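Please fill in the sequence for the structure shown.

STRUCTURE ENCODING:
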């Protein structure tokens, strides 16, 4: 096994390391990935999947670069499954951008669920046992332990875990999503929230995901063999808890781009650690800072693994920016305006921050920024602009537009252009 794929070793949160992992996995992005990606071989043995997600989530590795590498090495047909899985993350982000009400509902619902745990001793005990891997269901307990110890779970294991949490153990789905979000190195608000909603039958309404004993046995290569009676029979999802259905699709939030030459404070967050990709040279940068916000993921303690990865990614981003960056922590939102005005800046420039806890924090900073005459400006990547208009319903709408999305990216000279064009062929 190559060391970069060994999940028992703490990952190095740098762009160079992410690109090293991508290069090592590129020969496996084709048919080998399609055939092996569903098998969870366990901690330290995730050879059939790339484990690039913590890097892609922070854009230490860009989605279009991973897609281009796969197509260049294997062609569009052989790389199809890998490309689709990369685009899934963009789909989920776009879907939540178009329905921010779902995020607000999750946050308020989670607060209610956590308050219920304080009142209900038995429920609190059951949740604590599940998080500690003490349910006596071998597969579930192993996944809980792996998640806490490594910050990673195979995608198939995530679905099984969520299904068992919701339907077999009968625990609040938002509390389970919060457990994931506090521990996953690649956790982001959209993929995590919507992934749990999908399992619960709330995303694709009326179609919950059932954890199946034979499926678990087959796709853990026999590591686990639960009995069918160990798992609940899933006959319906939780759609009855949201009788009004999905909220309406909203327009994408408008973006205010940075104004060249204007006194600027550059803000680097772990939503996008590639600020060097943007036109920094045209800005009059008076100050720069990294903003640690991992603790905002939950009101409960966030894993040290997650916080250390964030700190390392921010430090690497600051180094690559070539600027002297001070370190900030997202505490009092009013401090953002004080930082910018203290340097004489009239705009804050940062890569686009999608719906989630950091976006909430920035919104809370809005009144103090407005009072100080500071404009919050963002760069939104063309990768997101290409995918998000299609992210209004299920993934199928995005999937059928993948050739057009990749052609659009090639037209804008993003990523290795020739690789994308060559891979598209006549599709």
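FILLED IN BY: designer on duty
SEQUENCE:
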């Amino acid at each position: 096994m190559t060391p970069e794929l060994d999940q028992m070793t703490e990952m190095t949160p740098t762009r160079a390391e992410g690109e090293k992992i991508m290069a090592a996995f590129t020969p496996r992005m084709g048919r080998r990935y399609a055939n092996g990606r569903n098998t969870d071989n366990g901690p330290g043995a995730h050879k059939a999947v790339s484990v690039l997600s913590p890097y892609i989530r922070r854009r230490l590795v860009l989605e279009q670069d991973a897609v281009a590498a796969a197509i260049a090495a294997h062609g569009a047909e052989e790389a199809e499954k890998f490309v689709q899985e990369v685009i899934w993350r963009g789909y989920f982000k776009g879907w939540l951008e178009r329905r921010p009400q779902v995020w607000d509902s999750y946050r308020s619902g989670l607060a209610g669920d956590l308050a219920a745990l304080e009142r209900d001793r038995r429920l609190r005990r059951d949740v604590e046992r599940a998080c500690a891997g003490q349910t006596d269901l071998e597969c579930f307990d192993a996944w809980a332990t792996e998640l806490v110890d490594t910050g990673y779970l195979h995608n198939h294991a995530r679905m099984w875990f969520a299904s068992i949490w919701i339907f077999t153990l009968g625990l609040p789905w938002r509390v389970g999503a919060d457990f994931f979000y506090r521990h996953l190195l690649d956790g982001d608000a959209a993929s995590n929230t919507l992934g749990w909603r999908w399992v619960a039958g709330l995303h694709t309404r009326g179609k919950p995901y059932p954890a199946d004993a034979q499926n678990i046995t087959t796709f853990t290569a026999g590591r686990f063999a639960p009995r069918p009676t160990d798992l609940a029979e899933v006959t319906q999802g939780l759609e009855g808890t949201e009788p009004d259905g999905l909220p309406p699709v909203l327009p994408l939030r408008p973006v205010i781009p940075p104004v060249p030459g204007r006194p600027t404070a550059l803000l680097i967050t772990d939503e996008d650690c590639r600020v060097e990709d943007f036109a920094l040279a045209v800005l009059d940068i008076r100050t720069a800072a990294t903003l640690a916000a991992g603790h905002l993921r939950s009101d409960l303690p966030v894993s040290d693994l997650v916080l250390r990865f964030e700190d390392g990614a921010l430090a690497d981003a600051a180094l690559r920016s070539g600027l002297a960056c001070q370190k900030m922590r997202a505490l009092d939102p009013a401090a953002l305006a004080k930082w910018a005005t203290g340097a004489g800046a009239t705009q804050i420039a940062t890569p686009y921050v999608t719906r989630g806890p950091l976006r909430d924090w920035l919104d809370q900073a809005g009144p103090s920024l407005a009072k100080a005459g500071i404009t919050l400006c963002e760069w939104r990547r063309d990768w997101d602009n290409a995918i998000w208009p299609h992210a209004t319903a299920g993934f199928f709408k995005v999937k059928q537009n993948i050739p057009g999305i990749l052609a659009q990216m090639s037209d804008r000279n993003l990523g290795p252009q020739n690789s994308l064009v060559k891979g598209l062929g006549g599709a």
